[in-house]
Amino acid sequence: MSLEIEKPAKQLIKPKLKKSIIDCDIHHNVRDIKDIFPYLPKNYREQIELWGTQLPDFPFMNGGLRGRMNNSYPPSGGNAGSDLQFMREQHLDPYNVEYGILTGEFPWQYASQQVDYAAALCSAYNDWTVEYWLEKDSRLRGSILIPIQDPNLAVKEIHRLGNHPGMVQVLAYGGARMPYGQRFYHPIYEACAQYGLPFTIHVGMEGVGINSAPTGVGYPSYYIEYRALRPQVYMAHLASFIFEGVFEFFPTFKVVLLEAGVFWVPPYLWRLDQDWKGLRHQTPWVKKPPSEYFKSNVYIGSQPIEETPNIDAFTSMLEWTHAKDSLLFCSDYPHWDYDSPLLSFPKLEGDLWEHIFYENARKLYKLPSRSAKQGGVVS
């Protein structure tokens, strides 16, 4: 029984999944920054043509081929994830993806001090996503990118697209100037709750541009360190959401945590519950143990899920993570550490597979029940 992911160089597989799935982390990309020019104000188009994007960049080398699977670059040219037809052939159809949640490849503006420019880039990317992806494949759903640096501009973008049937969540990145539970961000969560949109955090932009250092002791030297330390960023955000009272103020508000691993959650919740018992007088508005807020308001993406020493440990960790209700399948296509829907999990007992690969996402994103007529190959 293997928990290994499919090797990047492997050729396209033949369809094997009989049941369709919902993939909650698919990275679509532009072929070139000029793809979003039709949606950008003229002054920003001219600025980019003259000076480049002038956006801060990720400082580490990644894995694979420029961070992507070696075979994920489309034959037509351009970036990995930039060709819808190739994505269909390589991922959506073979793996019977009934719905795919697009999370994009456009994080740099989240670390820029130019908030108006960041807002314009987010809006342009959102409009491009709607026209060139959502309107061309009914399986796809989008994420509303927002300028998290300025809650007023972020709320404006949520109001602009919150009722769009193809947009199913608001997306931000782990990199931030302060923990996400703080009151500075609350107008964003009020708007998310108003439209029934989850607030999804994807790893990225930690320690870049205006954002705080990626660890509590500063900057690591290598990507492997940065990657291993991702959970501490999510630990900070999760504790902030809970102890700042976000889930009490906005009871229907949901948070999704993507791409920082999974099995750090159980011991962290145990610790939060233990500390809350002795210190809850400091935050009297937190009326329940922290683990209860996690179970009612937080979802976590499966990629990259940790390999355990044996299947018994894996099964126990799934149970302690509340996977039946909280875990969402994520492939992370087309990144180098892509998780194949066939190989990323061992055989799951009972209806656990159904919940992880379909039902949890269907419930969260208010999607239809499985239909044999949708989502690629069904045999």
From TrEMBL:
Cited InterPro entries: ACMSD, Amidohydro-rel, Metal_Hydrolase
Keyword annotations from UniProtKB, A to Z: Lyase
Boundaries of every Amidohydrolase-related domain copy: 23-367
Pfam families: Amidohydro_2 (PF04909)
Protein name: Amidohydrolase family protein
Species whose genome carries this gene: Paenibacillus alginolyticus
